[in-house]
Every structure is written in structure tokens, then in C-alpha cells.
What we know:
Blueprint: E1 3-10, E2 14-21, E3 26-33, H1 36-44, E4 49-55, H2 60-67, E5 73-77, H3 93-105, E6 110-111, H4 117-149, H5 162-170, H6 175-206, H7 210-215, H8 222-233, H9 241-247, E7 252-253, E8 256-257, E9 260-261, E10 266-267, H10 273-288, H11 294-306, H12 309-330, H13 337-340
Helix pairs in contact: 4-6, 4-8, 8-10, 10-12, 11-12
Amino acid sequence: MSEVYVGIDVGSTMCAAAVRNEGGKILKGCKFSTTENNLVEFVSGLEGDVSVLFEEGEMAGWMCRLLLPHADSVEVCDPKRNAWVYKENKADPVDAMKLSEILRLGGYKVVYHTDDEEMATFKIVVQHHQQMVKNTTRIKNQIKSRLRQQGVIITGGVVYTEDGRHEAISRVYNTPVQRIRLQDFRLLDDAERQRDKAERLMVRESGAFPAIARLKKIPGVAIIGASRFFAYVQDSSRFNLSELNKYSRLAVVGSESGDKPLGPEHLNRDGNGTLKDISRKAYNGAMRTKEPNGIKEFHRRSLQRTGDRTNARLNTQRKILAVMLAVMREGGKYSDDRVNG
């Protein structure tokens, strides 16, 4: 059976699609409204071994799971690596043709999306919790900033307590502004309630995944770190350790021309900042514990070996992620031997 290569340029309201054969000839091109029925009807109506490619975007995960039952292959590519596909207009037939050619030639970087609906749903739950945490932090920062505009300078978290907020507002001598600051605190109260609800939902949904129960036993990780790691990694076979470090923005990279370095080595900036954040929070948590643990011992040895606190911390963050990946992949309980054995 002949192979056909489908490129879809996706917009929120319209899609443009192009179909090529193995020889590169355009067989079909069309535009249609972005609906579930239209996408399925278009892809399922093609003859041959159908491969589909579109760029990463807010609808990519949904489209992957939608179209995979109706095609032999559905992949998402990284738009940052597709300079050839000039993105000015959505649902561009020319871009769809370029995507179909990129797919035929294999010249693209795949962005991972799970085909597991339960896993995809859990990631949405985790991301919702993260957004609620960010909203709460944003409102807290906004409160302090607006108080400073009135000459009220307060450090630390006492201003968010019941007594602290009343004391802060009493130092604002303009009555209308006092009322506005009270509204800010009420917004914070609501944001904290929504954050707590999101956390309870995440904890409840995490019970469906036994790996999370194992991950949260790692020193410093706890339920939130375990849930975030599991939701973002999804499939532990995706990475070896080098790839995990790079994806987590913890790999050391440098520019070279021939054998000559063009600049100092630094941590890579591509990848997912969430995993880096997980590793840092786990590091902080493990180091704060009163009892000895494998993470603290690994850090002690790394500091002794390198003589540099930053390098020792980064080495420990990498080790934490490596242990988390191993626990997720191999099963079994955490033990300090996994860190220092």
C-alpha cells in the first residue's frame, strides 16, 4: 500500500491540509473548519498508509489523540525548528504543503504527546494546580507593590495574615485606597481557596497512578513534586539520563567553532523548566530534613569533590531526577542505595 504524507496547518477556527505521495507530488489540498468531525473525516477518507504532521500548539495534544485511531502515524513537530514554515497566517495552505514535505523527508523534531487519555487528563489537572499557585503568587506580589505605592513597606509574609493586613491597611491614610487594598486581600483569599481546591483535586487524581506513591517517598519530593514529575514525563522510556538533563535545562552546553570555544559553558535553555523547578524544590526539601538521607549524603560528597556549592547543588538536582526516573521506570521503593549505591 502506498504511503501518503499529510501536513496540517492548524488554526483555532480553520485548518489547511496538504497531502503528498511518496514521490513528493501534491495529491490534495483543502481548507476546512477546525472541528472534530471535519478532522476525522478528512484523515479517515485518505487511502494508503497515512502519516500526519502538524506543529506544536495549544490544540496539538487533543488532535493527536483524536486522529491517531484514523491514521498510521500522527506526530507533532517543534515550530522553533521549522524556519522553513513561515508563521504569519494560521490555516495557510502553503505552510500545510511545507509540513507535508518536511514529514516526507523526515526533517523535523518530534514533540511528545501521550495517546493515553487518562494521562493527558492528569497533566491538565497538574497544570491547573500550577496555574492556581502562580495566580496566588502574582496577587501577593501585587499587594506588596500597591502598598509600596502608598509608602507602606512590609517584608516577609506577615502582611498576608489577618493581623498583618489590618496593620498594613491602617497605614494607608486615603479611605478609597484602603477599600481598594481590602479588595486585593479578598482576591487573595479567593485565589488561595481555589489553589487549595486544585491541590485536593490533584492529590485525589494521583491515586490512580501507583508510580506517584513511590515517587513521593523520595526525600524532598512529596506528593506535589511526584505528581508534577509523573505528569510531565508521562512515559519513562522517553529519556536516557543525558536526554533527561537536557530536557530539564540542567545540561551543561557551550558553543564551539572547530576546537575553539566561542563562549563560557552554561546550562541549556531549551527544554522544560518545570522539571528543573521540581528538582530544585526537592533539593531544598531534602536538605531541610533533620534526619540524614541519601540526597543529603550525595550533596555532601559532591561538594567535597567539586569544592563548589553551585556545582554540588546542580549535580544533586540531576541525581534527584535520575532517581525519580529510575523509580518510575523500574518500580520498587526508594532507598538511599539508589542514590549512593
